[in-house]
C-alpha cells in the first residue's frame, strides 16, 4: 500500500456500523477495500461501485472473509474502466459522505458513499502452484549437466532443492 494511505488518520468503522446509521458517521475518515463491481465516469468525477471486504494487515481486501455489502467511491480523477476493471481489488482512503442510490436489477438500494482522497488498485497476482521455474510437486524428467535424464522429486517451490536419482 502506498505510504500516504498507510499514514492516513482513519477511524476504524465496520461496514455494518456505517450502513446502519450513515448519518452519524458523515465526514468520518475511513480506509475501506473490496472488489470492483462497476465504474461510471461522469464529466467531473468517477464512481466506483465495490463489494466491501475487511482489510488485512497490509490493507489488502481479504476475499476469504465474508463481504459486507456494496459501497461507492467517488473520485475527482478519471478512472479508466479498463484499468479499474470488474473483480479487481481496491483500497480507498476517504471520508464517508452519506448514501447514494444504486439500482440492482429492478430494485433501488441505498449504499454508503466515500469521497476518495486516495485509491490503491492492487496488482493481479497469479499463483504459481508449480513452484519456481516450472518444477513442482510430483515426478518428471530433469536433464542434468551431461544431458542424461534424471527423475526429480519436486517440492516446496523456490526454496526447495530437488533430489536426483
Could you explain the architecture of this structure?
With 165 residues, this protein is mainly β. The chain has two domains: 3-121, Nucleic acid-binding proteins (OB fold (Dihydrolipoamide Acetyltransferase, E2P), Beta Barrel); 132-164, no CATH class. The chain contains two helices and eight strands. It has helices spanning 3-6, 15-20; strands at residues 29-41, 46-53, 70-75, 89-104, 107-121, 139-143, 149-153, 163-164. The strands form two sheets. It has a five-stranded mixed barrel with strand order 1-2-3-5-4. A hairpin with a 2-residue loop joins β4 and β5. The model is unreliable at 131-148 and 150-160 (pLDDT under 50).
Properties at a glance:
165 residues, OB fold (Dihydrolipoamide Acetyltransferase, E2P), 2 domains, three-stranded antiparallel sheet, 8 strands
Oligomer: single chain
CATH architecture assignment of the largest domain: Beta Barrel
Largest sheet report = 5 strands, mixed, barrel
CATH homologous superfamily of the largest domain - what is it? Nucleic acid-binding proteins
Low confidence ranges: 131-148, 150-160
Q: Using only CA atoms, what is the Rg?
A: 22 Å
H/E element sequence: HHEEEEEEEE
User: In what range is the share of β-strand residues?
Assistant: 35-45%
Shape: globular
Mean pLDDT: 81
Task: Estimate nothing, just give the exact number of structural domains.
Answer: 2
CATH topology of the largest domain: OB fold (Dihydrolipoamide Acetyltransferase, E2P)
- SS content category: mainly beta
User: What spatial order of strands do you see in the largest sheet?
Assistant: 1-2-3-5-4
How many distinct helices? 2
Amino acid at each position: 500500500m502506498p505510504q500516504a494511505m498507510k499514514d492516513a488518520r482513519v477511524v476504524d468503522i465496520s461496514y455494518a456500523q456505517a450502513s446502519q446509521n450513515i448519518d452519524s458517521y458523515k465526514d468520518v475518515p475511513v480506509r475501506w477495500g473490496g472488489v470492483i463491481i462497476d465504474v461510471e465516469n461522469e464529466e467531473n468525477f468517477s464512481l466506483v461501485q465495490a463489494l466491501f471486504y475487511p482489510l488485512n494487515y497490509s490493507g489488502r481486501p481479504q476475499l476469504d472473509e465474508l463481504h459486507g455489502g456494496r459501497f461507492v467511491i467517488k473520485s475527482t480523477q478519471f478512472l479508466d474502466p479498463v484499468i479499474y476493471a470488474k473483480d479487481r481489488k481496491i483500497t480507498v482512503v476517504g471520508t464517508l459522505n452519506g448514501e447514494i442510490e444504486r439500482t440492482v436489477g429492478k430494485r433501488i438500494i441505498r449504499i454508503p458513499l466515500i469521497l476518495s482522497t486516495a485509491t490503491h488498485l492492487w496488482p493481479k497476482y497469479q499463483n504459481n502452484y508449480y513452484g519456481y521455474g516450472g518444477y513442482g510437486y510430483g515426478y518428471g524428467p530433469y536433464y542434468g549437466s551431461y544431458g542424461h535424464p534424471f527423475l526429480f522429486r519436486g517440492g516446496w517451490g523456490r526454496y526447495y532443492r530437488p533430489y536426483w536419482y
